[in-house]
Amino acid sequence: MIQIQNLRVSVEGKEILRNIDISFETGKTYYLLGQNGSGKSSLALTLMGHPKYYVEEGIITIDGENLATMTPDERSHKGLFLSLQNIPEVRGVRLGEYLRTIHNKHLSVGNKPLSPFLCRRYLTTLTKELSIPDSFLDRDLNVGFSGGEKRKIEILQMKLLNPKYIILDEIESGLDIDAFRTVAELLARVKNPENTLIIITHNFRMTEFVKPDEVIILKTGEIVERGGAELVEKIGMEGFGE
Ligand SMILES: Nc1ncnc2c1ncn2[C@@H]1O[C@H](COP(=O)(O)OP(=O)(O)OP(=O)(O)O)[C@@H](O)[C@H]1O
Ligand SMILES: [Mg+2]
User: Which of 10, 11, 219 most suits a substitution to test ligand 1, by most atoms within 8 Å of the C-beta?
Assistant: First the structure.
């Protein structure tokens, strides 16, 4: 479980999140919704340990351990995964090699690292599932990839690492109608009693594929409403309001 108590966060001296109290329980799916600029990405980046997001007050724990003292890398090893809203391009790092490196760095005890050959074979099964050409594995990480292709690569990383806590920041953005369905169906299959999904989205159709256990609404850096799937329907009809 990830537990957030009385969280207050600032960026470059400007307060962007306050009074945040939430628990993300294992086995559940959460939707984090809100207007543009309400603080959704800031909360995701704070959880992952982005150095610009400064925790002024409050406690965040992951499976009982204090998250604040962990580096982003340590958070990742604790099972935290974030698919960024703005996905960076990394020149000079080949996608296939990058994926093999992160896979081998996240091995569970007793598992052997994958050789380039075996890893390629494994990655090919994942690329097929996501309708990504294999040749992408030989290209630089995200360089020149379309918006939708970058999203798919994020999903590929998620499948590869099988993380316990999955935060997806607008994973649907830029996906065409078929890719949206592929990704939504895949997420529905990824969900299991051992993991937690935290979905940030502006496309409420996602909830038809991956059912929310809890819906959390942020407004100007604070939680203003929480509820079940019925909240999505209400906001779909009425909007977030002023
Ligand atoms: N690094 C930063 N520097 C300055 N301001 C920031 C920074 N990060 C976030 N903010 C500000 O914090 C507020 C919340 O931004 P955030 O990106 O978390 O919103 P969001 O809910 O993810 O919006 P969207 O739906 O548009 O993605 C905004 O007013 C934004 O300008
Ligand atoms: Mg955002």
Answer: 11
